[in-house]
Amino acid sequence: MPREQHFFTLGNVKILTWIIGRRCKNMPKVIEAECVACGACVDVCPQDAIVMEDVAVIIQDKCVDCSACVDECPSDAIVE
Ligand code: SF4
Ligand code: SF4
To answer: Are 80 and 27 in contact, with CB atoms under 8 Å apart?
Structure first.
């Protein structure tokens, strides 16, 4: 079977759809100008998906979109 036909199997289409769907959903983002680097979001995240640099940085691949950090942030610096 030619390589092009083999790639577009139903299983691969389902996997691609899942990846694209995950990338397109509204994941939380840090508004850098609003972050005061208090670390509250780092402490509350159940996935250890936030690291502190100059401001908080969300590791999107670890985030499960639970919104705990959004609720915890005292500066409203995380939005979805
Ligand atoms: S939404 Fe939940 S999992 Fe994602 S970074 Fe915030 S606290 Fe962590
Ligand atoms: S809780 Fe808000 S202000 Fe504090 S480090 Fe996280 S994003 Fe920044």
So the answer is: yes
Any ligand 1 atom below 6 A from CB of 77? no
Domain topology for 3-79: Alpha-Beta Plaits (3.30.70)
Q: Where are the domains of the chain?
A: 3-79
- Give the SS3 label for residue 58: strand
- Ligand 2 contact via 77 beta carbon (within 6 Å): yes
C-alpha of residue 15 to centroid of ligand 1, in Å: 23
> pLDDT per position in the chain (80 positions), as tens?
555 556 667 776 665 556 555 555 689 999 999 999 999 999 999 999 999 999 999 999 999 999 999 999 999 999 99
